[in-house]
Amino acid sequence: MRDKRLDNQTIAIFARQLALVLDSDLPVHSGLEVIQSKSKNIQLIQMIDNVQSQLKEGYGLSESLSKYENLLTPFVTNMIALGEKSGSLVGVLNQIADTLEKEIEMKAKVRSALTYPIVLSILMLGVIILLVVKVFPTFTDILESLGGEMPFFTKIMMSVSDFFTHNILIIIGIIVLIVFGYNFYKNTEKGRLKLDHLKFYTPIHKDIVSAVVGTKFSRNLAILIKSGFSFSISMTMLKPIMNNLYMENLLEEASSKLKDGAQMSEVIQDFNIFPGVMIRLFSVAEQTGHMDRMLEKIAVEMENEADARLHNVSAVIEPLLIIILSILIGIILVSVILPIINILNAIG
Q1: Cβ count near 126 (within 10 Å)
Q2: pTM value?
Q3: Is residue 1 helix, strand or coil?
Q4: Each residue of 201-236: pLDDT tens digit?
Q5: All domains in the chain, ordered by first residue
Q6: With CB atoms counted within 10 Å of each terminal CB, which end of the chain scores lower, N or C?
Q7: Nearest-CA neighbor of 275 among 294, 293, 301?
Q8: What are φ and ψ of residue 211, in 5° steps?
Q9: What is the dihedral of CA 142, 145, 149, 151, to 10 degrees?
Q10: By C-alpha distance, which of 169, 170, 158 is closest to 133?
């Protein structure tokens, strides 16, 4: 069974600690022992164990780590090999850590921006279900016992309440089946490809995804180009770290086109997923010949774009959810107030 890839946080910490070890007077073997003792990740501990054994047998550090590209990604292992060969391994490791930490920061921003709307939606749904399933039936029983008549508007709401009350198990079963079916589908290659493709075309969501992916793509490509890798090889090395099967397929196609002599800006434009400003900046970079520096600027620009998109989404979704919640609760309250009036009339 193939080992699961280490998360970005674990890889970033490992790269940073390894850089400190190599930059100090501590022997690599002893430094790895220190890193191992501080780690709580079983996969990383086992990997360091094996690397230490290979170092004792005379293998180089990059050669030993290259056997664990499924844990560290080919991008990281290839960069370490290049850094060791060029004598700048400490700088490369710190660069890897910086890049991964910026990606972690970006994910945290996305998560933070989406948490409040999701929590508010769940609370909104809970309040509506409570009112429809619990409150309405109580008023119905009281009104019927007093011989009152249920208003037409309230009858409609009561029909909804009765439907949910009498079919709650069926509804829960359908929801469970939908969730199970979705999880099963997304874990298939076809399903994952389709869902990853939809991320770039779903309204609102697509702008955030394209900016976030553009940031990751540009920042990591800048490192590879600066290290001397060709565009075609860089496309292949970027595949495992994009975490998007549709993007991986695009990179595979891009690598083939670049080998056939296509321009980088044309290939990026053919992706049809990145903002126009990113494509224009790529074109300028090709003309000026300062691709590595321009890619870093593009990464910063895309990060700012992602921040702006997240802010705009939060600014629109939060008030919208509050308005929807207010309207729905208002409808429910009207449906409750009307039978109360009838009850009072019946008592009178």
Answers
A1: 10
A2: 0.70
A3: coil
A4: 887 778 788 888 888 888 888 888 887 888 888 888
A5: 8-72 (1.20.81.30), 100-348 (1.20.81.30)
A6: N
A7: 301
A8: -70, -40
A9: 20
A10: 158
